[in-house]
Amino acid sequence: MGFVRANLALVEDKLRARGADPAALLGDFRSLDQRRREAITQAESLKARRNELSQQVGALKRTGQDATALMDETRTLKDKLDELDKAAATLDEQMRFSLTSIPNLTRDEVPAGKSEADNVTVKTWSEKKSFDFEAKPHWELGESLGILDLERAAKLSGARFAVYMGAGARLERALISFMLDMHTEKHGYTEVLPPFMVNSRSLFGTGQLPKFANDLFRCADAIDKGNVYDFLKENGFTDELDSLAEFNDHWLIPTAEVPVTNLYRDEILDEVRLPIKFTAYTPCFRAEAGAAGRDTRGIIRQHQFQKVELVKFARPEESDAEHEKLTRDAEEILEALDLPYRRVLLCSGDTGFSAAKTFDLEVWLPGQQLYREISSCSNFEAFQARRANIRFKPAGGKGKNEFVHTLNGSGLAVGRTWLAILENYQQADGSVLIPEVLQPYMGGLKRIEHQVA
Prior knowledge:
- The protein is an alpha+beta fold.
- The protein folds into two domains: 2-99, Helix Hairpins, CATH 1.10.287.40; 116-216 and 254-448, BirA Bifunctional Protein, domain 2.
- The chain is built from 15 helices and 18 strands.
- It has helices at 2-6, 8-17, 22-62, 68-99, 138-145, 150-157, 167-186, 200-206, 227-234, 238-242, 244-247, 257-261, 319-336, 383-388, 414-424, and strands spanning 120-125, 148-149, 163-164, 190-192, 197-198, 217-218, 251-252, 267-270, 276-285, 304-314, 341-345, 357-365, 370-381, 390-393, 402-403, 405-413, 432-433, 447-448.
- The N and C termini lie far apart (58 Å).
């Protein structure tokens, strides 16, 4: 809050670079800040008058004179001061809520731009795969091989869900194990298996709430509407009733970033522990509220998908270097699988709400003749740490506690890696070769051929 007040012009410029309207986002902040300052100024004036009256009351009492009138005025001032203090506290809370709608400020090296068309390609790795036959998209390959069933998934759950069968299911599992092994054994991450549901505070900490509530799945527990709640109430189980509010605060995670980053919410870490590096496999659940009509074919954009995530907690002065390392860790998965990709620096208008700087890794899909995002690697600086209150204590106890910098990236999105393998390793006869590094995870299987499901 103090930073925004002291650097209002900079904040406005950064918001414009993101394509946002500073007046719309900061209007309430200015108004609330002015009213809060006025309340504080009035309170200080009344406190000065109260102190003056207290001295006068003391002087009158010492000389035996009547101080009733001054004491009545002092009590009136106290009531007014209480009202002003409450008003200032309420305005302060409203200001903090207003700031929750303001995105992180992008780094100066982030290119200005409005959309993905303004992103900058930093590097390209490997040549695009070429075939002497017409390459098919993954949804045709998966269906013809009998390893991907979107029709039955729709029967079970609706659109944007998938059922993997046989070797297709095993390939998904193989990719998860391969990625986790690579990140833990080669890159030095600690594996975490977090809950797949989190509370609202966790989603606020990483920046999903309140802005992106419509993109999330909230668990609609029926316990407060049905027979269980009535039974507890009628039989006097008050402790159980009190716990329902917390019990009902469950959301399905959109990414492992949320639970893993919040592991240290409201904690102070020792500086010597930094950087801390975690990797986690989880399913991810997204409502895709803003993606109507986009990527309706295949498994590009799903309500449920699997992902291996990378999360780091770093010293502020080291977060740039850690961002580069994290991005390289994700790239090495693609290189080990021999999947052509490019690294893209996102422009200001395409950078996510919580991020200060983001590299996207985009894999080449010959069946669709395009690059598609498979990992997004971001440096959030202290943005998430402030919301989640994650700080570190400087080594030797010198200096005050500071907010850590948080970073994360997909290492990788498993479903998109799965489909990238199908499209890049497809053969003229419709079969799909298994990348050499995955064959041990596939029980030695070297090729996926048609199976009956």
